[in-house]
Every structure is written in C-alpha cells, then in structure tokens.
Amino acid sequence: MAGAAIQCPKKKSQIDSDRKNNMHTQGKPSTEIQRFAVIHRLLHLVVMVGFTGLAITGLSIAYPANPVSRLVIWVLGGAAHTGGLHRFCAALTYGCVFVHALYFLYYRLVLGGRWTGPHSILPAFKDIRDIRDHFAYFIGRKPSPPAFDRFTYMEKIDYWAVFIGMHTMGITGLVLWFPEAVAQVLPGVVINIALILHRWEAILAVVVKVFIHVGLAHLRPSLYPADMTIFHGRMSHERLKHEHPGEWERLNSSGQ
Amino acid sequence: MNTKQWLPAALAACLVLGIGVVLWQTPAPAPTGDGALVCLDCHRRPNTDTNEGVATVNGFCNRCHADSACQRSQSLVSLQVPADAFEGSGHRHVACIHCHSDVARNPHQSVAGAQCRTCHPVHGNGPIGDPHLRVTCQACHLASPHVALDQRMDLVRLTRTDDQGQALALANHKRADLADPAMCAKCHFSGNRAGAPAWVLPNKSFLCLVCHPAPLALGHWSLGLAALIGLAGLAALVLFWFSGTVDGESDGTHRKVAAGSEAVWNAVFSHRLRAMVKALLLDVILQRRLFKIGLQRWMIHGLILWGFIGRLALSLTTGIVFFLSPDSELALALIDKNHWAVALINDALGTAIMAGVIWAAILRYGVKPDHVLSQEQDTLSLALVGAIVFSGFFLEAARIVVTQVPDAVAGYAFVGFGLARGLSLLPFDWQQLQGVLWVVHAACWAGFVVYLPFGKLKHVLTTPLSLVMEAAVAKTAKNEG
C-alpha cells in the first residue's frame, strides 16, 4: 500500500504545465512545484475531519465521567448519538483508506508507477542512515542535515502510524460494532480483547497525532502556524531545496 | 435487686420470647410452583434485567398460563402459552411483563396488549413502506393468518375470530417467517379485509428520494436498470466534456482529470467561492435570469422547480431525522404520509408542479408566443413531468380509497382526498388498480431518469453547473481585468 500517497514521477513537460496552470502565478515564472495531487489533498481533508470527530466522540465514550466528555455527550444529544456520530466518522475515515488503496492500484496498474525508489513512501535503508546522520547533525558531529528525498523519515513515520493504525482501529471497531456477528464465528473473548485494543490504540493514535504530527506540521519554526502544502499542494523551490535537497537534486538532474 | 433494675431485663426477655413465638407460628414462604401463594409472590418487583428476575416472573406467569385449562373468563378462549413458545426466539430471555406491561395488576387483564415499541423502533422505509404505520406489529410478525382493518381504532390488527366467527387462541406466540411471501399474502390479495392493495408492491428505490422518503437501496430491478441507464448517460456526458482539452491539457485522461480537479479545487478554496454560492442561490435556486426575462416564464419554471426542490428537501429531512432519532415524535410524523402536515405539504408542492406544467402547456400549445419553439424534446419533457405528478395524485387517491383512511385524517391531502371521493363512486376493484397506478407512477419516474441525460431534461444538471462555473470564471476575469 506504500506508494499510494505518492505521485507519478513528473516529467519536465508536466512540471511546466503545472506552472502554467497555477492560478496564482499565471504569467510569472513559477517558483513552486506541485507536491500533492487533488485526490491526496481531498483525502487528507476528509481524514482530518473524520479523525478529529473520532477522537472527540471516542474519548468521550471511553471516559464518560470526565466533565469534558459529559459536555460533549450533552451537546451531541446523548451517548447513543455520540456513538452514532463516532461510527459515521469511522465510516468516513475508513472510506478514505479504501479510496487511498484504490488509488494505489490505479497508480500501479494504470499509471505504471513504481513502489520503490527515492520518491516512495515505503521505508528504505536510506531512512536509517538519515536518522543516524540527522541525530549526528543535532549533536554537532555533522555540518548539515542529511539530503532528504521526497519523504523524510519523519513524514514516513507520520504516514505509516496513521495507515497501520487505521486498520487496527477499523478491525477492532468492526468487532465492537457488530459483536453478535463476530461471536457467531469467534469466541466471545475476542470482543473483550477488541475493546482493550481499540481503546489503547486510540490513545496511542491521538498521542502520535498530537506529538509527531503537530510537531512536524505545525510547530516547526519555519512552518508555524501550519504547513499549508497538503491543502494547496504547492511547495516553493526554496523550501524544497532546504527540506528535500535530495529530491531537488534529482529533479534538477532529470533535466529541469 | 430493685424494680428499676430487673424490669427492663424482664421486658426484653418477654420481647425476645414473643418474637420467637410469632416466628414459630408463621410458616416459611412456600417455594414458587407448589402450594399456596404468599403475599410476596405477587407483591414485589423482580429485576427483569437479570436472567434470575426473568425466570422468576415467567415462572410465576406460567403457574397458570402453562395450563391448558387457562382461559379468558367470558369468551372461553385458551390463554395457554405453550412451553416451547419462545424456543429459538430472541424473546426467550425476556420477562412476560416486559412486553405485557399492564397485566401485573388487579383486575388481571391487558388493555394495551403486548408493547413491542418499548424496545423496537418502527420500520422506516427500509424493510417495508410507510403505509404499514397503521398496521400493528403482531399483524405481520405473528403467524395467525386472520388480519383485518379495525375501523374503531384505525389499525390493521389480528382478528380475535376467524372467517367463520370462531374465537381464535392467540396466546401461542408463534412468530411468522417473514421471508415467506405467503405472510404478505395474509393481507395482500383481492378482496381483503385489511384495506391493503391486492399486489405486494416492491419497495421504493433510492431514485424515489427526489420526492419521497425512500431507503438507500436499488429496489425493484427495473428501477435499478433505469438508474444504470441514467448513470451510463451521465458518464457519457462527463466523458464528452473531457474529450476536448482541459485547462490546456489535450492528451491523457489522467492529465485532464488532474488539471480539471486542480481547477475545481483552486476555485472552491478561493475567494471565488462567494461568487459561486451567490450564483447558486440567485441564478439557480431563485432563477434570477428568468425573472429578468419575464414574470410569466419565471413563475412557470419556478412552480415546477420549487415543487421538486421542496419535495426533495422534505424527503431528505425525513431520512436524516429518521436516521438520527427513529423514535422521536418528529420522525414518526415525517414518515407518515397521512400526517396532516406531510400530506398538506406534499399535495401543495405537487399542485405547484402540476400548475406549472399546465400553464406551460397552455402557453406552448395554445398562446404560442414568438420565443416558444415546440420541439419533440420539449413536449416529451413536459409530458413526463406532467405524467409523474398526474399519476402520483391518482395513486394517492387510490391509496386513500383502498386503505380507508378516515376522512378527518385524509382531508389534508386536499387533491388526493377530492380525487378519492370521485374514484370511490366508480365501480372498479381499487385494491387491484392501486397496484396498476403504482406501476404507472414508478414507470413514469423511471422514464424520467432514463431520459434525463439524453434530452433537454439534461438542463437540470448542466445549467446549474455552467451558471456556477460561469460565476467563478467571471470573478477571475474581473480580478485580472
């Protein structure tokens, strides 16, 4: 499922046409490249809303005695409605995972894209070297950070935490949604296990989002208050050169 | 020892002795099931949320009701509940008084009957249609084949006597297998006493959502086929749009879709959104452009458009309210087409569409002003819309005749009720004809859906789209100019 978040490696002509079509830079020489296609921006937007809704309703159901939970449940009109909204958000979010997987198949089979390579979001040995070099840079052993390519190891962690977590939450969530159907096939203890996994995986997911994602996409001094690339899809050449020097090199050497 | 010291001790000793004697004299409570009743056998409230409480209650009821001699005192109808009544049923762990909530009292009798809706919500438009709101749960879900409309209660319910007038024992609790079509045929046959159409009509399709609350299902295969043809036509339309260049891209569908979606995204997430929403409200919903051309044309088109928009809004509201809170008063009112407000709104909106169609027809074929060019496509579109509403009103009238909705209730459907009065004078088998009218109405709508992407009705989709896109482009041009 790895390559689904990434795009077809761009040809020069396409980058030129991106420039031409860019409404904000029409008629001027472009200083931006297109990093995300509309489908990825749309999926991010829907998952953003769905995940937030899931976290708010889910935590309210998990800790109903908390005053904040009581407020949420009161506003939403009771535990049943909160649960209904939780399942609605779940369907919405998991729907995105499904569309994402379909896009991956389209990318692989129709566009003929590749799974691996420097543009891939699949973990690679380079990431381990990058982590080592990055920390060496932090403690002053190296003069510069490693030459990150299209996705840095941090972004990969951020992506895979969600992508794997979605399935864990989805499967355990389905067990809790349809316990009678599951108990026809599996022993009842599965439902108890699912409840425990669902709760702690949820807390893990929220913690990961709050610390890693907020740190990566909001609190970095160069990006504060938010990295808007996932919303408008564009990234300036300066930023690309600074944050993804590997990709910058690669695009330049391929003829730009 | 003086008196003050021994008197309390002696009194205490007497008390203890007295209690001992009383306890000695009182017999221990007899275990349930054998021997005489004691007060607490009846006068208590076992916790029916526990299996133990359920067993206690049901054991108590079965002291009499398991016995074949258990009868209703006047009519001598058996009230025996067979031992296997709930075997394999979801109700086997439910206390009798959970459903029969008004029997644990003196005199021991039930007025309300079993209360299903304490636990179960009503059906929406999913498994069965809303006409069944006037049918008791038991009429379908119990196996007894004797069902009739009870005019006094305005409910279709199980009868207490069979066709020969023999009293029926209904206490066996035997449930119907609703997968068996014969169970629908209890009521749905020609000449039934339940006030049901003779045919088992198919469920509504999601296509019906434009005017009626409907489930999100395909429904009958013919409606599914209509949806498929309509969708194929729409797909052809979209493919045609993408056959030229899209935003400068001329080759590769992927490139074109990417460029197109990029343009849409950039328009939606920009200041142009305001102009687009404004165009949607003023030009699409309020028909500003037609208003500028002429009041008459604006009103004709408005009557038809707003009639459909109103029906769509009501059906979507009904679906959402029913999904969120199926047991609320509002949801029950909205899914009930006999409810005065729903009937009034539906008939008023239908009348608006009908008026628009008739007015347009008079103008087009009678007055014939210069701008009107009568083409086959226009005639077909107008005829389809007219046929849908016309057949709809006749279907409603037939439904009122067949289901015998009381006049005080049905009167709010002012067109349907008036028609029903007229139809009831005609010597036809309306139980049969209601089915025919249903099929005609559904076929008209299926025809509309099939014709939608191919003829002039296409404007329903393309005109709003082009008006909104025009607004977005005009805004860009103004900013750059």
Supply Rg of chain A: 21 Å
Globally, the shape of chain A reads: elongated
Structural class of chain A comes to mainly alpha
Largest interface: A-B, 17 and 18 residues
Reading side by side through the largest sheet of chain B, how are the strands ordered? 1-2
Q: Examine the secondary-structure arrangement and name the CATH architecture of the largest domain in chain A.
A: Up-down Bundle
Instruction: Work out the helix count of chain B.
Output: 18
Structural class of chain B: mainly alpha
Number of strands of chain A: 2
Quick one: overall form of chain B? elongated
Q: Tell me the strand order in the biggest sheet of chain A.
A: 1-2
Report the CATH C-level class of the largest domain in chain A: Mainly Alpha
SSE topology string of chain B:
HHHHHEEHHHHHHHHHHHHH
Would you tell me which CATH topology of the largest domain in chain A applies? Fumarate Reductase Cytochrome B subunit
Strand coverage percent of chain A: under 5%
Residue share in helix of chain B: 40-55%
Whole-number total of structural domains of chain B? 3
Task: Give the H and E element order of chain A.
Answer: HEHHHHHHHHEHH
